[in-house]
């Protein structure tokens, strides 16, 4: 039982270390350049109606993980569906 608990503790510590390293990379100059490039690419490819939502989802995934990104995507989809802009856009 003690060995299992020690292994679980080591896994949690390794996960936190990896998360810290990933967050530190995003805060570096190279990470900011990559993030800005991704944002510019998203703005170039997607229509204005959804580009900000997609960027918010990407930011949530990078900062808080995949689960948070999925939750943000669901929230954005619900908000988009209820918006007047979407109703206008769907008609075309």
Low-pLDDT windows of residues? none
Beta-strand fraction estimate: under 5%
Instruction: Name the helicity range.
Output: over 70%
Shape: flat
Number of domains: 1
Structural class computed from helices and strand pairing: mainly alpha
Mean pLDDT, to the nearest integer, reads: 77
Number of strands: 0
> In angstroms, what is the radius of gyration?
18 Å
The number of helical elements comes to 5
H/E series: HHHHH
Largest sheet, if any? none
The N- and C-terminal alpha carbons lie at a distance of 62 Å
Question: How would you portray this structure in words?
Answer:
The protein has 92 residues and is mainly α. It has one domain (2-90). It is 90% helix and 0% strand. It is built from 5 helices and no strands. The chain has helices at residues 2-26, 29-45, 48-64, 66-82, 84-90. The termini are far apart.
């Amino acid at each position: 039982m003690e060995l299992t608990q020690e292994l679980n503790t080591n896994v949690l510590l390794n996960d936190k270390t990896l998360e810290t390293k990933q967050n530190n990379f995003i805060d570096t100059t190279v990470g900011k350049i990559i993030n800005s490039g991704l944002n510019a690419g998203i703005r170039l490819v997607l229509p204005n109606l959804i580009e900000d939502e997609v960027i918010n989802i990407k930011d949530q995934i990078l900062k808080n993980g995949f689960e948070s990104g999925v939750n943000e995507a669901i929230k954005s989809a619900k908000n988009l569906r209820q918006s007047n802009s979407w109703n206008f856009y769907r008609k075309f």
